[in-house]
Design brief:
The structure is a single chain. With 118 residues, this protein is of the alpha+beta class. The protein has a single domain, classed as YggU-like (Conserved Hypothetical Protein Mth637, Chain: A, 2-Layer Sandwich). 25% of the residues lie in helices and 26% in strands. It is built from 2 helices and 5 strands. The chain has a 5-stranded mixed β-sheet. The N terminus is likely disordered.
């Protein structure tokens, strides 16, 4: 038989300090016969096509480095938060605000004359 104890709220934290960050929805495709490019759709998803035969973890690694280079974010401050196996991914960025990420994304895509739909 279990002893009856009143419910107590713990004083020790169960959550850890979260860094300022942002997330970006990415749809990733990869085929060697098409050039690498990116476009932002009306629904806010960044479609990225990488010209490669890589798959799985190596493709995800390539995606992070591609985004890091163009968004000027250290690759160490990024990770794939969801969708490691599929084409649809959530890429998490640490130490950057959503507004700053959006500014860099606009600057990159407009400067590269990539299709931008807002």
């Amino acid at each position: 038989m279990l002893a009856s104890t009143p419910f107590r709220i713990s004083t020790s934290p169960r959550f850890h300090d979260a860094h300022i960050g942002a997330a970006l929805l990415v749809y990733l495709t990869a085929r060697p016969e098409y050039p690498t490019h990116a476009a932002l759709t009306e629904d806010g998803i960044l479609h990225v096509h990488l010209q490669t035969l890589r798959t799985g973890e190596r493709l995800n690694h390539m995606l992070l480095h591609y985004l890091a280079r163009h968004l000027q974010v250290p690759v160490e401050d990024m990770e794939i938060g969801a969708g490691e196996e599929g084409a649809g991914k959530i890429v998490c960025f640490y130490h950057i605000t959503p507004a700053e990420l959006e500014r860099r994304l606009r600057q990159w895509l407009q400067g590269a004359r990539m299709p931008v739909v807002w």
